[in-house]
Specification:
Elements (H helix, E strand, L loop, with lengths): L4 E6 L4 E6 L11 E2 L7 H22 L1 H20 L4 H20 L9 H14 L4 H14 L5 H7 L2 H14 L10 H14 L2 H15 L7 H21 L3 H15 L1 H12 L8 H14 L2 H4 L2 E10 L2 H9 L12 E9 L5 H19 L1 E2 L5 E2 L12 E6 L10 E7 H10 L1 H7 L5 H22 L16 H9 L7 E2 H10 L4 H11 L6 E2 L1 H32 L6 H14 L2
Parallel strand pairs: 5-9
Antiparallel strand pairs: 1-2, 2-3, 4-5, 6-8, 7-8, 8-9, 10-11
Helix pairs in contact: 1-2, 1-22, 2-3, 2-4, 3-5, 4-5, 4-9, 5-7, 5-9, 6-7, 7-9, 8-10, 9-10, 9-11, 10-11, 10-18, 11-12, 12-15, 18-19, 21-22
């Protein structure tokens, strides 16, 4: 049966092309030209590819199966990219958890704060990935909202995903109930509860609970004020110090600041206003200095000969920490020196004298810093020449960043190699335990040993070690290959229609969606997908997800600048119209 003809136009050259549906996906096919026109194959190919992409995008957004696969592939890629190196067993575990949870999360109602259950689960899992947690913990984070909603039992998780993930879910639910063990949450009971968590629970389950608390604190605005304060007090007393105890310092700082904001809103406003008074223009001051230093380091010829990579991280002192220094320590505002902070991480060139080159690179970096800002010698500390007793090594310095007559607090800068940074992170565990209320050195060491043993056991069970080639050199599988091999179950190097239909059925989508998706993605019409064809599909998925992320970002910026709230009738009407046009 002959398919209907379809005319395509190339506006730039006003050429009319005639071809048959379905639209060819590669330039290897012959395009028939209407008599009297000129053949411009490259222009035609680009036009055909654009139309093919738009049709593919339409399918992926409108069909249940297409949307599920996009979410599966997109979430898996983003998680594994943030996790870094991941073993094949870890990849399979994470992929299974996503396949099981995505259709169940779609069926759940919106959360109390107005988000979709899928959005909440992905937010939790991405936070865990940023903390470099293993595949079991991230799988438990994805499945936690499903278990909480009663859509699946922990027994089902054990049977379908694995014992380790089920154990973490069970443990995290127990950790969640720990605050209810005391009637009055004073300082003494808070310390006791933190010790209890560190002693009797899997540390990974504790970290999962902390991430859940952070996600909740980020979306606490819908609750009445008394509930906001009650939850924030609990987080400030128990969870923020606990986060510091297990080494997740940035998580601890954010929990403190969010709790501070809800417990003492007026004090928070004063501190926040004071910190922002040091800004100049619309860009955060720490970002301005970060980019200035990074640019100077990258163009320095001496440093370029010593290192293969250099990075600069910037941070503001937390609002809560600033308040403590101003009130508890009795300091004046001009005496709070570490409001701004930068950390320079250097990766020295490999060789026999790599450690010595790294040290030289640190000192060269200090010279570059001195060329940019005025150093305050009395605050300079050389922990490279004179390491701390725990082995900590780094250069610390403070610089005056005041300009144009405007006074600003001193900015602290830490300079270290990548190896020094890794050792610093590993060596802070005991110190963190002390700051969290554990003052007995032997007890701190014992709890640290428990934490390390739990992490090592998890890695051993998952075999989360980089794969080695025959020469013992680490190899890293690309993102596209990783997903492709998980879908290619028979290992023949292609994804056939049966394998695609199986994934669709696992996601709860009709099998017919798989046939339509295969037809759209199968460029050479051989009835299967090669790794190249699947790679093109993944680039389309990434392209679409980037647009969705940017739309949310632009919405937030415009809302702030134009002072338009979602509750306004104009936004509601426009949103409804947009939803109808997008078919949501």
């Amino acid at each position: 049966m002959e398919l209907p003809s379809m005319e395509l136009y190339c506006p730039r050259h006003r050429l009319r092309l005639l071809h048959q549906e379905p639209i060819p996906k590669t330039h290897h096919r012959t395009v028939r030209i209407v008599p009297g026109t000129v053949t411009l194959q490259r222009c035609c190919t680009q036009r055909i590819r654009r139309l093919g992409f738009l049709k593919t995008r339409s399918f992926l957004l409108e069909q249940t199966g297409g949307k599920m696969v996009v979410e599966l592939v997109g979430a898996f890629n983003e998680l594994t990219e943030r996790m870094g190196m991941l073993s094949s067993s870890g990849s399979q575990l994470l992929f299974k958890a996503l396949k099981l949870s995505i259709p169940l999360l779609h069926a759940l109602p919106l959360t109390s704060d107005g988000r979709s259950s899928l959005s909440r689960a992905l937010s939790i899992s991405l936070l865990l990935a940023d903390l470099q947690m293993d595949a079991e913990v991230i799988s438990a984070g994805i499945l936690r909202p499903v278990v909480e909603a009663g859509a699946i039992s922990i027994l089902d998780v054990r049977n379908q995903i694995g014992t380790g993930t089920a154990h973490l879910l069970h443990e995290s639910l127990r950790v969640m109930k720990v605050p209810s063990k005391v009637d009055v949450l004073d300082d003494g009971s808070a310390v006791a509860l933190r010790k209890f968590c560190l002693t009797y629970y899997d540390m990974r389950a504790v970290i999962l609970d902390l991430v859940l608390r952070l996600d909740m604190m980020r979306h606490l605005g819908y609750l009445p004020r008394y509930q906001q304060q009650s939850i924030s007090l609990e987080v400030m007393k128990i969870h923020a110090p606990l986060a510091h105890a297990v080494g997740t310092n940035w998580l601890s700082l954010e929990l403190e600041d969010l709790s501070f904001q809800y417990l003492f809103p007026h004090s928070y406003l004063y501190v926040d206003t004071w910190l922002k008074s040091h800004e100049s223009g619309s860009k955060p001051l720490v970002d301005v200095y970060k980019e200035q230093l990074l640019q100077s380091l990258r163009v320095d010829p001496l440093l370029a000969g010593m290192v293969v990579d250099v990075s600069v991280d910037g941070r503001y002192k937390s609002r809560f920490s600033t308040m403590k220094k101003l009130l508890k320590d009795g300091r004046k505002p001009e005496q709070v020196h570490d409001v701004l902070g930068l950390r320079v991480i250097l990766e020295p060139r490999s060789g026999k004298d790599m450690a010595e080159v790294g040290e030289s690179a640190c000192y060269r970096t200090r010279e570059v810093v001195r060329s940019l800002w005025k150093e305050m010698p009395h605050r300079t500390k050389d922990y490279i020449a004179r390491p701390k007793t725990n082995g900590y090594r780094s250069l610390h310095m403070a610089v005056d960043v005041s300009d144009c007559g405007k006074s600003r607090p001193l900015m602290e800068i830490q300079i270290r190699t990548k190896e020094m940074d890794m050792l610093a992170d590993a060596g802070t565990a005991s110190h963190s335990l002390y700051k969290s209320g554990l003052t007995d050195p032997e007890e701190a060491k014992r709890l640290k040993a428990i934490m390390m043993a739990a992490a090592e056991f998890a890695a051993l069970r998952l075999q989360d070690i980089p794969s080695m080639n025959h020469e013992g050199i680490e190899t890293e599988q690309s993102q596209s290959d990783r997903v492709f091999h998980l879908l290619d179950k028979n290992g023949d190097g292609r994804i056939n229609i049966e394998e695609l239909m199986e994934v669709m059925e696992e996601l709860g989508a009709p099998g017919e969606d798989a046939r339509e998706m295969m037809q759209l993605l199968d460029a050479n019409s051989d009835g299967s997908l090669s790794s190249d064809e699947f790679d093109l599909f993944q680039r389309q998925v990434e392209f679409m997800r980037n647009f969705e992320d940017k739309d949310e970002l632009y919405k937030a910026v415009l809302n702030e600048k134009l002072q338009i709230a979602d509750s306004s009738s104009l936004i509601q009407v426009s949103g409804e119209d947009l939803s109808r046009r997008l078919g949501n």
